[in-house]
Amino acid sequence: MLRRKPTRLELKLDDIEEFEAVRKDLESRKKQREEAEVTAGEEAAGIALGAEHKSREQIINDRIGYKPQPKVGVRAAHFGTFEF
Prior knowledge:
It is found in: Nucleus. By secondary structure, the protein is mainly α.
């Protein structure tokens, strides 16, 4: 196997500027995401501390639009329950 000399990488001013721009962009996105999480957390705390208390199941049902309708007068059939 032939050995070759190591490749020399040169850092140019354009590369440094591009790196700084990308880093600032990522930092601003991270800050916006953290602010959104804080705001959402405050809203959730406000909802949880409101006059109307809902269980976790009810909150999820409301969020997905599921409205369970209880069945009236129907006996549940259970395995092993026999009536003669």
